[in-house]
UniProtKB/TrEMBL annotation:
Record gene name: KIAA0391
Name of this chain's protein: Mitochondrial ribonuclease P catalytic subunit
Reactions the enzyme catalyzes: Endonucleolytic cleavage of RNA, removing 5'-extranucleotides from tRNA precursor
EC number: 3.1.26.5
Subcellular location: Mitochondrion
Length: 567
């Protein structure tokens, strides 16, 4: 199956090279809450009064300790432990297979690649030479495209391959090559490229094969055109029942864009087809529900737990932790009441975004040092690469640990987050690309392979760029910096908007609290509840300052007073 482009000129225009420099593939000062219980009896009114924290770490440590003690005693007795390797125990089948290895047919060694895959875009002459060096029996174009996709090569390399193929075939590119390119774009979450391919396919084909539909759906859900993924799902229904992965992508997209009703309707539709939902789908609902104060949504999550029970399904470890976090998030340990979420409502988020754009980004912020041309270049960059999951203030992060080399610290942070399949943006300055003892070239190249990067002029201020990219990526996006951003908060027009900014900041700013060479970085957890005086009618929760503890204006109390009527 092939399609003809209107002309090679339009092909080059469609897959134009990205002009942005450095494009590749925080200390929040909030203390941990500590447990401290006491009670008094009010003679005038019967009240239970408790000073406490909202994180029950001691209870969990005690439970863990009791579990260890139980196991230790069981091992020394004649009783059978609950975690004995019975026939249906997790991992028992694998152990039996290892004890009784079966003979297997010999596996022939894989064929060596006859050529080295390119790591940067090639021109027509360079592709001609590479094809001449190819000794395989398969089509060179199909083989090299498959290899680039399999190795997750940079998108611009595959883009130059398609431009070369089109130039040799009067603008004709096969459907197979286009789908492989789409697969690579989806892996790198290059939404602009995905939408370009989508427009071509929509114009040329009335129907696609399942793989094409799946890739387009998965790619579109991260863009502002995510609802068109739902139209593709409807196209699949005309021929067959969509796969559970198709439903998972559409549900994840709906939750990403705050459309809970669409997500839940798709989930019910999936169950109506007798499909077993992916654990990632169910986990996404619990991730969305963290800190959310909504009884109807809570009932939906309880329905999911009943579904797991009734179908004897078992969540994985990460899903189990997610359920635990949801169950404990924002709940007072003194009275069990749910506290107010730290997350902004959709209306609050849009109001804050509008005010930051007007007063900080576009409003002549006196603390901002950049040029209108550079800001426009950055805005176009974000439009082509967003949304991001985490935005990193590269220079700030690199200097968090003065004794370590800056480029190594930044690489450690990026590598750890990239392994979690996070879409990353690193903001830096151009001098970071100039090799020296503190900024090694090889380490910075590794950073650029794992994250999108934008390097501003050396005189520019990073903060406006960080705020812009984070807010334009959506309410799920977090950012990493030690900067408290008090200057930008002061630029906002009124106390209400400043409070919204601080609330958003507490719910989105990640802080690195420890780094040990050769081991994982430790990030401080983000609060799930808002630190303000709260009431539910029959209870009050009041954060208060401890005597002899100095609290700065950008900090919040760690002690709470819990008051509720006794029944």
């Amino acid at each position: 199956m092939t399609f003809r482009l209107p002309g090679f000129g339009s092909f080059s225009k469609l897959w134009k090279n990205n002009p942005y420099l450095g494009l590749a593939s925080g200390n929040s000062h909030l203390s941990h809450f500590l447990m401290n219980y006491c009670a008094i009896k009010n003679q005038q009114r019967w009240l239970s009064l408790t000073t406490l924290s909202l994180q029950n770490t001691k209870a969990m440590d005690l439970l863990t300790a009791k579990t260890r003690y139980y196991r230790k005693n069981v091992e020394g007795s004649n009783k059978v432990s609950s975690d004995s390797s019975h026939f249906f125990a997790a991992g028992a089948a694998k152990k039996r297979a290892q004890m009784n290895p079966q003979s297997k047919d010999p596996i022939s060694p894989p064929l060596r690649n006859t050529i080295q895959l390119p790591t940067k875009p090639l021109n027509s002459e360079e592709w001609d030479k590479l094809k001449g060096d190819f000794k395989g029996k398969a089509s060179f174009e199909n083989w090299i495209s498959s290899q680039l996709t399999h190795c997750h090569s940079p998108v611009d390399v595959a883009k130059s391959l398609l431009a070369w193929v089109a130039s040799k075939n009067n603008g004709i590119v096969s459907y197979e090559l286009l789908v492989k390119y789409l697969c690579l774009c989806v892996f790198h979450k290059q939404t602009t490229e995905i939408i370009d391919v989508y427009e071509i396919m929509k114009a040329r084909y009335k129907r696609l094969e399942p793989g094409g539909y799946t890739l387009l759906i998965r790619g579109l859900i991260h863009s502002d055109r995510w609802r068109e993924a739902l139209l593709l799902l409807e196209d699949i229904k005309k021929v067959t029942i969509p796969s559970k992965k198709n439903y998972d992508d559409c549900i994840q997209g709906a939750l990403l864009h705050q459309d809970v009703n669409t997500a839940w309707n798709l989930y019910q539709e999936l169950l109506g087809h007798d499909l077993t939902p992916m654990m990632e789908t169910l986990k996404a609902f619990f991730d969305f529900g963290k800190g959310l104060k909504d009884d109807q949504y809570t009932n939906k999550l309880l329905d999911i737990l009943l579904y797991l029970r009734n179908n004897q399904l078992y969540p994985g470890e990460s899903f189990a932790h997610c359920i635990k976090t949801w169950f404990e998030s924002g709940q007072c340990l003194g009275c069990g009441k749910t506290t107010e979420s730290i997350h902004l409502t959709l209306e609050e988020y849009e109001l804050l975004k509008e005010n930051i754009m007007r007063n900080v980004i576009d409003g002549g912020d006196q603390y901002k040092k950049t040029t209108p041309e550079e800001l426009e270049r950055f805005q176009n960059f974000v439009k082509s690469c967003a949304p991001f999951d985490i935005v990193i203030d590269g220079l700030n992060v690199a200097k968090m640990f003065p004794k370590a080399r800056e480029s190594q610290v930044l690489l450690d942070v990026v590598s750890q987050l990239a392994k979690q399949n996070q879409q990353l943006l690193v903001l830096g300055r151009k001098h970071m690309l100039k090799p020296c003892s503190r900024w090694r070239k090889d380490e910075m190249e590794k950073v650029q392979k794992q994250a999108s990067c934008f390097f501003a002029d050396n005189i520019s201020k990073d903060d406006p760029f960080l705020l812009y990219a984070t807010l334009h990526s959506g309410n799920h996006c977090k950012f990493i910096t030690n900067d408290l951003m008090r200057d930008h908060k002061a630029c906002l027009p009124d106390a209400k908007t400043q409070r919204l900014f601080f609330k958003w900041q507490q719910g989105h700013q990640l802080a690195i609290i420890s780094r040990f060479p050769g081991s994982k970085l430790t990030f401080q957890s983000i609060l799930s509840y808002d630190t303000v005086v709260q009431t539910t009618g029959d209870s009050w929760h009041i954060p208060y300052d401890e005597d002899l503890v100095e609290r700065y204006s950008y900090e919040v109390p760690t002690k709470w007073l819990c008051l509720h009527r006794k029944t």
